[in-house]
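Record type: monomer structure entry
Structure origin: computed from sequence
Chain ID: A
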Amino acid sequence: MKVYVKFLIDLFNVSFLKVFFSFFMIILITNILEQIEFFKNFDVSFLYLIFLSFLNTPSIIFEILPFIFLLSTQVFFIYLIDKKELEIFKYNGLTNLIMIKIISFYAFIIGLIFVIFFYNTSAAMKNSYLLIKNKYSNDNKYLAVVTDNGLWIKDEIEDKINIINANKVDNQFLLDVSITQLNKNFDVLKIIQSDKVDISSFEWKIKEPVILNNNQEYSLSQLLLKSNFDLRKINSLFSNLSSLTVFKLIELRKSYKILNYSLVDIDSHLYRVISYPIYLTLITIFSSIIMLNIGYQKNTFYKITLGIFLSVIIYYINYFLNILGTNEKIPLILSIFMPLVMLSIINSISIIKINEK
């Protein structure tokens, strides 16, 4: 490896680690404050709250990696500019374009490492965090999971436990539904079967149910069943996809497909994770171009403020497009890759003149 390449990579590593651990500590402290508020009525130790916060922090860090890469690149160039290193490189024939190629390629490698290793680790930690915290939540009485055998729901209401299984989901309806109703001692009270159940509200409308009660079977035209779940709540239970590793996401997608459940959210999440190294690389190039254009003209405070401002804009553009994609207002692929195309175009236009500076 050439000496200047090693120097630039080492400097980028130092800049990245500074920003990374700064964000890590800020998020960790914020998480601790949230845990203190949540557990204020529980007898748990402060070390336990720190442990929970530590489990939750990496998944949040993964979400804000574009900000971290953008600011890390700024810190990288601020050092080069303040120490007059850029001028030395130019005198030795190292152009701005070559420098950008080096750090952007390295950013892509780091992005791959984060997707392959960091994301899956953070997802496993997030899953453990949610499982532990759920024990202290009122929602622990309720459970919904998707398996190869369909949608399963455990619902405790009015001193009864309803175990619900549906083979398919069609808009606001559960199809091929079986409901086993138990008492608190887990004795079977009745079994309800129906081809179609409307779950648009918390009062389910069971169409033409067949009921088995005390070894007697009878039918009704419709049966109303109160529940802690409606369609929106069931959908929200599966929205925290950041707690699933890539392998579990793929397994869940297969189960969703069998259930006829919407694949939009899970596909959106998978596409975003897969495209992350490219996104981080483009952000690094974008930040490099900005710094090489304003590097000598503005002070450090202005540069950092600009970086934060641009990070917020990029975040909301991505968020807006993601909402359009998951709501199917625009094609899902377009919602994921449009920001990448926009950044690529901006970078391509700007980088043409970068060697003139």
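Annotation 1: Residues 79 and 85 are 8 Å apart (CA to CA).
Annotation 2: The chain has a mean pLDDT of 84.
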